[in-house]
Amino acid sequence: MIEIENVRKSFGQLEVLKGINLTVKKGEVVTVIGGSGSGKSTLLTCINGLEPIASGKVMIDGTDVHAKSTDLNKLRQKVGIVFQQWNAFPHLTVLENVMLAPRKVLGMSKQKAEEIAVKQLTHVGLGEKLSVYPNRMSGGQQQRMAIARALAMSPEYMLFDEVTSALDPMLVGEVLDTLRMLASEGMTMICVTHEMKFAREVSDRVAFFHQGVMAEIAAPEQLFDAPEHAETKKFLAATH
Amino acid sequence: MFNTALSWSDLVFLAHGAGMTLAVTAVSVAAGTVLGVLFGVIRFQLGPYWAAPLTFVLDVFRSVPLLIQLVLGNALQSIMKLGWPPFTTSCVVLSLYTAAYCTEIVRGGIDSVPTTTRRAARSLGMSWFQDMRYIVAPLAIRVSLPSWIGLTLGVMKDSALVLWLGLIELLRASQILVTRLQEPLFILLICGAIYFIISLPIARLGGYLEKRWSPND
Ligand SMILES: Nc1ncnc2c1ncn2[C@@H]1O[C@H](COP(=O)(O)OP(=O)(O)OP(=O)(O)O)[C@@H](O)[C@H]1O
Ligand SMILES: [Mg+2]
């Protein structure tokens, strides 16, 4: 379970998160929508401790992420994150990209790591691309590799930050299909997205962010068909 | 031109000089690179503000002519009664000189690795050190290699200045022969050719590695 309690975060003078509260239960899929600069990405990076927070608390399975005593490297093994830019390690083949963390972080044998990497890459449809270097693949393929790379650590939670935004429209579908598959397998996920149709389909709940505040959170039918907050209505009207 | 007084033993004398040039260069580049990597990482981690004192010292080594550094270094070691032979003094001064340049090359290399790539590594649970070792180092080396090769070749030529401390390296050996045989053009031609021959493998190594890595990025 991810428990976010009254989290505040600023970059210099700018308060980006103004007291966020959100609890995500095991197996739940929560999507986050909202305008540019509303703090969606920042929230994800605060959840796995890539960014520090000013006040409040993030608890993952009872571990306080931002406590000094927390071993973040250990904690991040169970919280995978995939970013908008696909961030392949360009000097490693697809297979090596996925094997690296299991080998070095989890200390797996080469054989075991390879077995897991092949399994995950096949899972996201890249079983044929094992020995290819990332620059030889499309954006969608690189993004699916990044997902496989995160999954190879067997995370219990996955955070996705607009994983399709940097892709050609043609390639969005294949990546969304991968996310749908994960959701159907019961992965606990928080997805920041601009794909409203996708959000409606996979989410248990949809959260709308506006200027650092979670203005509204509800089941997808509720939020999309009968939004309560004026800003939510405005945002949805603008995206249609 | 082929009617030269240059004898076989003179060539051996030149070869000894070339050996000295190689020895001074190898020691200085090796030590300077180790220090440069250390300082470069420190500079990058501390940021420009906190690293200012280190940067200042390194700037001094980069801007004061090497000859002055060698003479001052030698004077300093004798004032401090260290009793270093000229070879040691030369290597120490040249190492620091190399390190000063290498630091900038290393910092630039680390800088060239996108923060988003490093973030991805850390988000997989890699420690700072693992990120440095498996992601930053291989990528930064690719970027820094051409400058580092240039630095090495530069140090090899600059190392001629250690003749001022009395070491007989390649250039000094040639000078001695020129004075004795009075055939400056021919001897300097040979000297230049030897510099070229010992530089070539280093320059080729750089080209080879660049070619080997290029299809992957
Ligand atoms: N590292 C940073 N330093 C300074 N300001 C930042 C930093 N990261 C984000 N910001 C600012 O914080 C605000 C929120 O950014 P964030 O990336 O969380 O928004 P977002 O909701 O993800 O937007 P988008 O939909 O454009 O990705 C923005 O105004 C942004 O400029
Ligand atoms: Mg964002």
TrEMBL record, chain A:
Its main location: membrane. It comes from the Bacteria. One of its GO terms (molecular function) is ABC-type amino acid transporter activity. SUPFAM superfamilies: P-loop containing nucleoside triphosphate hydrolases. Keywords: Amino-acid transport, ATP-binding, Cell membrane, Membrane, Nucleotide-binding, Transport. It is a peripheral membrane protein. It holds the Pfam family ABC_tran. Residues 2-236 form the ABC transporter domain. Belongs to the ABC transporter superfamily. This is Glutamine ABC transporter ATP-binding protein. It comes from Pseudaminobacter soli. The lineage of its organism: Bacteria, Pseudomonadati, Pseudomonadota, Alphaproteobacteria, Hyphomicrobiales.
Automatic annotation (TrEMBL), chain B:
It is a multi-pass membrane protein. This is Amino acid ABC transporter. GO terms for molecular function: L-cystine transmembrane transporter activity. The keyword Disulfide bond does not apply. Gene3D superfamilies: MetI-like. The keyword Transport applies. NCBIfam families: HEQRo_perm_3TM. It comes from the Bacteria. The chain crosses the membrane at residues 20-42, 134-153, 184-203. One of its GO terms (cellular component) is ATP-binding cassette (ABC) transporter complex. Belongs to the binding-protein-dependent transport system permease family. HisMQ subfamily. Keywords: Amino-acid transport, Cell membrane, Membrane, Transmembrane, Transmembrane helix, Transport. It is found in: Cell inner membrane; Cell membrane. CDD domains: TM_PBP2. Pfam families: BPD_transp_1. Residues 18-206 form the ABC transmembrane type-1 domain.
